[in-house]
Design brief:
Among the domains are: 156 residues, P-loop containing nucleotide triphosphate hydrolases (Rossmann fold); 179 residues, no CATH class. Helices cover 62% and strands 11% of the residues. It has 20 helices and eleven strands.
Length: 502
């Protein structure tokens, strides 16, 4: 199972375990609510998908890396209590509440969310003294004498023994009480995520060609050598910042993130070519039509004569530029839609725009304190609050105190934001059309066009844009691609039938 499928499985589990009947009682028997045990190589995003699932399902999340804990922090500290049994007073050892269980209750109190995920990472790498506690946790959903609160789903994660020498094998009794999910490193799934999160174009382009270098962990007599999904994402971030600061990127930087020398060296060589081709072809100037006809013809001629790797890189340079445009649209569209929602709210609100803005601000600050706000929501709401302040000032400048008149005035101001979005859409459509023309002028309708169309299709931000703003060239070429795929499948089926009759 890949990480995307594992994420869906966790989300479906939450839905199943959290179902309630008409009286508000959980339908799924607590005794049958098996914890999920994710087993897979390090650095593939196990922790990240927990954060995503919790946000999307609107439940709480408490995450712990258990190797950082002692037996005392996990099960609590002992203390002596006096109890009476059969008329005789005796001293009994009890335990304070586990730090982990206490964190669950603190999350519930802080966020107001009574349901959530308790995520325990590296669960099979604990110390010898803590191992029995972890087995008890998976089998009985307790830390010491304290149970995990009802409504909280346990998800644990561990690494297979080939990646960590300190791994402890679970016995059959424990494994028979969990839902074990084996996760593989899947480059294709990670690439879907990477396009939507603006991973550096050189990383995306390189892994499109060298998928076999996406993930590797080796324990040898000479040491540990590894390349992980986390490493690629962190490398992408430092590359973008170095470029913005005009700091030279060296191989010694790359090897700090890709800790397998041959992969680091190979990527660094490709990165240099990616940057060189970006300069040589001037994709930005081509797609923005700020290039002379003669120069454009030189670029297309250069692409026609290029090697496979160079042609492949040119297509990815085009996709990388367009990905930036789709990201701009997503950002602006989210802001405009949120502002529109705020103005609709004001139309039905009994008070002034200033009172509404204050109410929204207080409500949003409360959501921030409760950790219910994503980065995207935060950026959009801050922008909306700034716009509402501008609108309030505009009303005062124009001496408008009547709400109906004020709404009409602000509608005109809001239309300016809508027009800006429309202008951005118009620009993206022209650039996308230009991209198709450029790819066709360079390579015709061969494999490079297939690569380009496939790249657009698997890009979540591109599909979000195209679902609202149809582009005829994209749909023309994507229909051709689907036709070719159907034709190829039919040819394969026919060959299989013929082989079967021999």
């Amino acid at each position: 199972m890949n990480i995307k499928e594992a994420k869906e499985e966790v989300a479906h589990t939450l839905q199943a375990y959290h179902r309630r009947d008409e009286d508000g009682n959980y339908c799924y028997p607590l005794v049958r609510q098996r914890p999920i045990l994710l087993m897979g190589p390090p650095g593939i995003g196990k922790t990240a998908i927990m954060e995503q699932v919790a946000e999307e399902c609107q439940v709480g999340l408490v995450a712990y890396t258990i190797t950082h804990h002692t037996r005392q922090s996990a099960i609590g500290l002992p203390h002596i209590e006096e109890k009476v049994y059969n008329g005789k007073t005796v001293n009994v050892t009890e335990y304070t509440m586990s730090e982990i269980i206490a964190s669950v209750y603190e999350c519930m109190e802080r966020t107001g969310k009574q349901e959530g995920i308790l995520f325990i990472d590296e669960i099979n790498c604990v110390s010898e003294t803590l191992a029995p506690t972890m087995l008890q946790f998976l089998q009985n959903k307790t830390f010491g004498s304290h149970k995990v609160p009802e409504g909280w789903v346990i998800v644990a994660a561990g690494n297979p023994p080939e990646y960590n020498k300190s791994v402890r094998e679970f016995d059959v009794v424990t494994l028979d009480r969990v839902r074990k999910i084996e996760i593989d490193a899947d480059c294709g799934v990670w690439m879907e995520y990477a396009w939507g999160h603006r991973i550096h174009g050189a990383v995306l382009s390189y892994l499109s060609v060298k998928e076999e270098n996406f993930y590797s962990v080796e324990n040898t007599v000479d040491g540990k050598f590894f390349v992980t999904a986390r490493g690629w994402e962190d490398l992408s971030e430092i590359l973008k910042h170095y470029e913005e600061l005009h700091v030279p990127v060296r191989e010694s930087l790359v090897v700090q993130y890709l800790q397998k020398e041959e992969v680091a060296r190979d990527f660094f060589a490709y990165y240099q070519l990616f940057c060189k081709y970006g300069t040589d072809y001037g994709i930005k100037e081509i797609l923005e039509e700020s290039i002379e006809k003669e120069t454009y013809e030189q670029k297309t001629a250069m692409a026609k004569a290029a090697s496979f790797e160079e042609r492949f890189t040119v297509v990815n340079l085009v996709l990388d530029y367009l990905n930036g445009q789709w990201a701009r649209y997503r950002q602006l569209n989210g802001k405009v839609l949120r502002l529109h929602q705020a103005l609709k709210q004001w139309k039905e609100f009994p008070g002034s725009l200033e009172e509404l803005a204050a109410q929204r601000k207080n409500s949003f600050e409360e959501k921030i304190r409760e950790e219910q706000v994503s980065l995207k929501e935060y950026q959009e709401e801050v922008w909306v609050q700034k716009k509402l302040e501008e609108y309030q000032l505009s009303l005062r400048k124009e001496h408008i105190w009547n709400k109906k008149e004020g709404f009409g005035h602000i509608s005109v101001l809001f239309q300016q934001e809508v027009d800006l979005r429309a202008k951005l859409v118009e620009g993206i459509q022209k650039r996308l059309d230009r991209a198709f023309v450029f790819i066709e002028d360079c390579f015709g309708e061969d494999q490079e066009m297939v690569l380009f169309v496939s790249g657009v299709t698997r890009n979540e931000m591109a599909m979000e844009y195209l679902s609202s703003h149809r582009n005829e060239r994209y749909f023309h070429y994507s229909e051709q691609l689907l036709y070719r795929q159907r034709e190829a499948r039919l040819q394969k089926e026919c060959l299989e039938i013929l082989e079967g009759h021999k």
